Amino acid sequence: MQSNCNKNLLNLEGVKLKSVQHTLDGIIIKIETNPKPQICPCCGAGTSKIHDYRWQKIKDLPFQLSNAYLLLRKRRYVCSCGKRFYEKYSFIAKYQQRTTRLSFKIVELLRSTNSIKYVASQTNVSMNTVIRILDTLSYDKPHIPQCISIDEFKGNAGGCKEKMYS
Ligand SMILES: [Zn+2]
């Protein structure tokens, strides 16, 4: 019964669902991935040696109208050069505490509303987070007034940079 059904439910490549817990704060979904050979970011050598694990809580898209969190068993590898590093995951951006698909959802909502408060409430993030994401969207366009770049972005899902510079 396990895997296939659970895999489809989460719709995240290479992720195994371990457990689901309903709490007052939302749904907590424990996940893990299979170990795979890594390239050391320091010396470039390959390694498969696992150093340790730590749990990371990541905000995901709301699920069944509840806040949803992925609790990821994050794996750290060690290289023969001594470097320790965390595995990279395609579904979280570096240094982020949320899934990339949640960031995309925030961007999508920003296209249809001017209310940062509304977007924050719909996606379980702070208004500051929404503002930060909005800032990154217009970051590369210093020569274009803010209002124009936002309007431009609104009319153009996903490919805003290409459009701005084409
Ligand atoms: Zn190394």
Quickly describe the structure.
The protein is 34% helix and 31% strand. With 166 residues, the chain is α+β, with helices and mostly antiparallel strands.
Bin the strand percentage. 25-35%
Bound molecules: zinc ion
Question: SSE order in H/E notation?
Answer: HEEEEEEEHHHHH
What is the rounded distance between the termini? Answer: 50 Å
Low-confidence stretches: 147-166
- The tally of domains stands at 2
Largest sheet: 5 strands, mixed
Oligomeric state, counting identical vs distinct chains: single chain
- Percentage of helical residues? 25-40%
Number of helices: 6
Describe the protein.
There is one protein chain. The protein has 166 residues and is α+β, with helices and mostly antiparallel strands. Helices cover 34% and strands 31% of the residues. Strands 1, 2, 5, 6 and 7 form a five-stranded mixed sheet that branches. A hairpin with a 5-residue loop joins strand 6 (66-78) and strand 7. Helix 2 (100-112) packs antiparallel against helix 3. The protein starts with a helix and ends with a helix.
